[in-house]
Each structure stands twice: as C-alpha cells, then as structure tokens.
Design brief:
Elements (H helix, E strand, L loop, with lengths): L5 H16 L2 H17 L4 H23 L3 H36 L14 H16 L9 H9 L12 H9 L6 H33 L8 H31 L17 H7 L2 H18 L5 H19 L3 H31 L5 H23 L3 H9 L8 H6 L4 H23 L2 H7 L2 H18 L13
C-alpha cells in the first residue's frame, strides 16, 4: 500500500482511531494486525508468508543465541539465522536474474519471475540480521514476547522502505504506554504532508523529464545526458526523502520516533561525508555489520585492508539494490571513490596545507561541487535501463548541445514546467531557512490563524499541483 495512494489516506486515520480507542495492553496487537493488513494490500500473499518466516526464524535464533554460554553454539545459531535471512532475500531478489540467464543459456521461456515482487524484503531481512548480531555481541537482550518482536519487524511506516531500525531504538518505543501528544500529532501530520509534496509535486514531475531521456538514450546526446543526470539526482533525493518524511510523520502520530535517513546529502564535501548523509540507516548498517568486521579481519594489511573492506562493502551494497550490472558498477564506483581516498588523503592534506587552502570556504565549495559530480556520475549506472545504455551515455556525455532536451522539458507542458520550477524554489528556500534559522520553533510560535493558513496552503498546493501519473517510489524495487 503506497503512502501516496487513496487507500492509505483511508487506512491511516482508521488505524489511528482503532489504536486510540484500544487499551494500552492490546495496542501492540492493533499495530501488528494493521501492519500485516498493510503488507497484504500489496496483493502478493507469499510476501506475508516470507515476513512471518523471517520473523519466526530470527526470533527463535535470537533466543537460542542468548540461552547458550558455549561460543561455538552461539555462533552456529547466529550463522543459521543470518544464512536463512540471506537465503530468503536471495531467492526473491535474484530469481529473475537467474531465470533470465537460464532462459538464454538453455533456450527456455520461463516467466515465473514476472509474478514475483520483493517489496520490503531486503529491509526486514537486514533488520533481522542486525537483531541477531546485536544479541550475539551482547549489545541487546532478546525480545521474549513474540508479538512485540513481530511488531518490531512489521511496523508499517518503515516496512517497505525503511528506515532500518535497531531493536534497541524501536522496541522500547513500541512497548511503552501511549499518551496523546498534540505537538507530536501536529508535527507528524505536517511532516507527512511535506513528504507527500516532495513526492507528488517535485519528484514525479522530474521523473517525466528524466524518463524521456533515459528510456530512449539513442535520441539524445551531450548536454541532454548531463542535464537529465542532474535532474535524476534531484528526483531520487526528493522521492526517497519524501517517502522517509511520510514514514517518520506517520510514526510520530503514534508517538514513535524513527531514525532520520537524510541530512542534506548533496552538501557533502567528500564521498565519505555523502554516505554519512544519504540513506543514513542503511549506511550505518553496512558500516557496522560488513565494513567494520572486514576491516578488523584484514587489519594486518593496514591501508590495503581498509581499501579492500570498502570495495567489498560497496560491492555488497550494489547487489543489495538488485540483480543488475548497473547496480554492481554503481556500488563498485562508490567503493573505488572511498578506497582511493584512503591512499590519497595524506597527500591531499599536504597539498591543501602548502597551497594555503586548508579550511577555506573556496576549498569547501570546490569539494562539494566535485563530490556532487562524482555522485552524479555513479547515478548514471544506477538509473540507466542497462549497462550498455549507461556506457552509451558516458561515451556521449560531452558530444555537444542537443535541442531534443527542450521537448523532454516540455513533456508535460509549459504550466507543469513552471510548477516544477516554483516547487523546487519552495523546497530549496525551506532548506535554507531550516539550515540557517530556527524556523521550526518560530513557525510553531506563530498565531493559530497563520499556522493553519500554511497548512491549508500546502494542502491546496498538493491538490492543484500534483501530477496525475501512476508512479511508484523509486526505492520500492529494493
């Protein structure tokens, strides 16, 4: 059930009303039942079975890890649970890839994979793995109540696209008594509406231009590719951060705070800084559960060990996004950026010191621009429909100006383009105000009539400016 669907607009208030009138003792059951209903609305019954399987396996393995004092047995239960989660994820995510290759090699015409979807599986599988690892490392105690644990896995605001939550952060919030909080409800509704605006007014309009270029690359060249790639960088950010705002806003209405997933990622002044700001919960996950163990294992290799751990970590990050060579290359590119910086950083510091650029605004601006362009270059492989399309785009990036971009810009008309430009202006101005002033506190201190004028204004903008296309969130497919 997408957050931007009419069904969800009915589901959310109905769920809240049921939750509100239920006594504390049974509220977890209301949220669990509605979360399963939310997932079942995807009309793929096997997904619910997969969620229950991953939940059951990780619950039992967690209890067994904690119950044993024998290190060998503890490790066996950890690996058994982890292997089961990865196996479930691999079967659902990579079956289309395997089927496609089997068809081409053996001359088959199998189409079973077309009926399979894996929405949300990678998020709750990773969440289960981190739960088991934290119990094994004795960071967390296992949850004894199966219902509470099942809700931790299935809580609907973060089920489909995250954020990836740790047990220590989310479980205590799900178990505490609920008290109505006007401020939490107000800010939750506002955040949800703001996220919806970013998705249906900004990201969906950008997608029309980007899709026109990227779905027919041989009709464009040069400047069109550069422009469309920059627009895609904005589209995927507004799409994913819009979803995250809606997830955080929904959870806040139930007095639950989910992890923040974005922090102005395109303001990063290095690729490492970018990953501290982009998809933060996922970045922390791969840092804690893949990079750090590998770096520790290869510590005798010193700098080469760190670089190798980064390459492997981002290779896994690439294939986590899907069975596509484009995602693999995207992951390897980011791994290469970071691995190169491990070797280059000492020399870079010397150069900055000698030239007097160290800690200057000019250097920071240059690093931000360079980082943004490196990230955009990698987005080409992420967005292109195939590896050959991505390579075609790169070969023709600097082939001059292409007037076809004008028709791409006007795909949905001049009015739509004007709305897009105005919307981008509103969103960017809001970021500037939030970054350089305490606008949130000042806004909530304003008179009632002013605040509700803004709320109604945002709703009117949504109704007037949303674009009528059937678009999924970009990260649904991961």
């Amino acid at each position: 059930m997408p957050f931007n669907s009419l069904v969800y607009f009915l589901f959310l208030p109905a769920t809240y009303l049921l939750f509100f009138v239920t006594v504390d003792r049974w509220r977890w059951l209301v949220l669990l039942g509605t979360s399963y209903g939310f997932y079942a609305a995807l009309k793929a019954p096997y997904l619910l079975a997969v969620l229950l399987t991953v939940t059951g396996i990780s619950y039992v393995c967690g209890l067994r890890i904690a119950a044993s004092q024998d290190e060998t047995i503890r490790k066996r239960w950890l690996w058994a649970g982890t292997f089961a989660c990865v196996a479930v994820l691999a079967v659902l995510k990579y079956f289309p890839f395997i089927e496609s290759y089997a068809n081409s090699i053996f001359g088959l015409n199998a189409t079973l994979s077309r009926t399979l979807i894996s929405i949300g599986v990678s998020y709750y599988a990773f969440q289960a793995i981190s739960y088991l690892a934290d119990i094994y490392l004795e960071i967390e105690e296992p949850e004894q109540h199966f219902g509470h644990y099942a809700l931790f896995m299935a809580f609907f605001p973060k089920l489909l696209q995250g954020p990836l939550e740790r047990a220590g952060d989310l479980l205590p919030q799900l178990k505490r008594p609920y008290r109505f909080d006007y401020d939490a409800m107000r800010s939750g509704m506002f955040l949800f509406t703001w996220g919806l605006f970013k998705k249906v007014v900004v990201a969906d309009r950008l997608s029309l231009i980007v899709d026109t270029v990227y779905n027919d690359v041989h009709s464009f060249t040069g400047f069109s590719f550069i422009f469309a790639t920059y627009l895609y960088a904005m589209q995927i950010y507004f799409d994913f951060s819009g979803y995250t705002d809606m997830a955080l806003g929904t959870a806040r209405m139930f007095n639950i705070n989910l992890s923040q997933n974005f922090n102005s990622p395109y303001m990063a002044n290095s690729v490492a800084d970018f990953w501290r700001r982009w998809h933060i919960s996922f970045s922390r996950w791969i840092l804690d559960y893949i990079f750090k163990p590998l770096q520790m294992r290869w510590r005798d290799w010193k700098t080469w060990g760190t670089a190798s751990a980064l390459m492997v970590t981002f290779f896994i990050s690439g294939i986590w996004h899907g069975a596509s060579w484009g995602f693999v290359v995207w992951g390897l590119l980011h791994g290469a950026y970071l691995a190169t910086s491990v070797f280059y950083k000492p020399l870079q510091k010397k150069i900055h010191k000698k030239t007097g650029l160290e800690k200057t605004a000019v250097l920071k601006i240059w690093q931000t621009i360079a980082t943004f362009n490196l990230v955009c270059f990698a987005w080409i492989f992420f967005r292109a429909n195939s590896l050959s399309d991505a390579l075609y785009i790169i070969r023709h990036l600097f082939s001059g100006f292409d007037s076809n971009i004008t028709s791409a810009l006007l795909t949905s008309g001049k009015i739509s383009l004007l709305i897009l430009l105005c919307s981008l202006g509103i969103v960017n101005l809001s970021y500037i105000f939030i970054r350089f002033s305490d606008v949130k506190t000042k806004f909530y201190d304003k008179p009632l009539w002013f605040r509700w004028s803004i709320y109604y204004g945002l709703v009117v903008l949504l109704l007037v400016c949303n674009i009528d296309i059937d678009s999924m969130f970009v990260y649904f497919k991961f």
